[in-house]
Amino acid sequence: MKIILLQDEKKLGKKGDIIEASEGYARNYILPKKIGVEATSKNMNDLKLQKANEEKVAQENLDAAKALAAELETKQVMVKIKAGEGGKTFGSVSSKEIATACKEQHGIEIDKKKIVLPESLKNFGSYEVTVKLHPQVAAKLTVKVTEA
After folding, report:
1. Which of 110, 105, 101 has its CA nearest to residue 131?
2. What positions belong to coiled-coil segments (predicted)?
3. Is 116 strand, coil or helix?
4. d(CA 78, CA 57)
5. What are the extents of the domains in the chain?
């Protein structure tokens, strides 16, 4: 009996896979536990439409990430930190501060977990920071650290 899996199952396969299962196993285990449905023509068509929709959504997310990356490449974020005598800084700039400054200055919301700092930003100056927007898209954001 052909079955379309509705969820990932360790021994059977991943969600959306079409597997061949014995009649008894399908009727007594897979179907009652809602792990899968019988692979009828209607269910096969629904699966095809669902996969096409998922691909479309994934492509839209990729396009949006590329557009945001192009926008971020042109932006510069100013972050101020306190300094003592002789230009010695107190602490360093965190990814949370960069995300907050980006939202305040440019209205672009970035998740602080997606900002990758090459090293701790403890000195004044301009730095290139990588922002991972999508598994396939990364953007460079210029962060300028100045004295408060």
Report:
1. 110
2. 37-75
3. strand
4. 34
5. 2-65, 67-147
First CA to last CA across the chain, in angstroms? 70
Query: Taking the mean position of all CA atoms in its chain, how far away is CA 65?
Result: 9
AA identity, residue 62:
L
The two tokens of residue 49 are 């439409």
67-147 — its CATH code? 3.10.430.100
pTM, to two decimals: 0.70
Per-residue confidence in pLDDT tens, the chain, 148 aa: 999 999 999 989 999 999 999 999 999 999 999 999 999 999 999 999 999 999 999 999 999 999 999 998 998 999 998 888 777 788 888 999 999 999 999 899 999 999 999 888 888 889 999 999 999 999 999 999 988 7
State the Cα torsion 14-18-21-26 to the nearest 10°: 80
Residues 6+ apart with CB under 8 A from 11: none
Within 8 A by CB and 6+ apart from 130, the residues are: 115, 116, 118, 138, 139, 140, 141
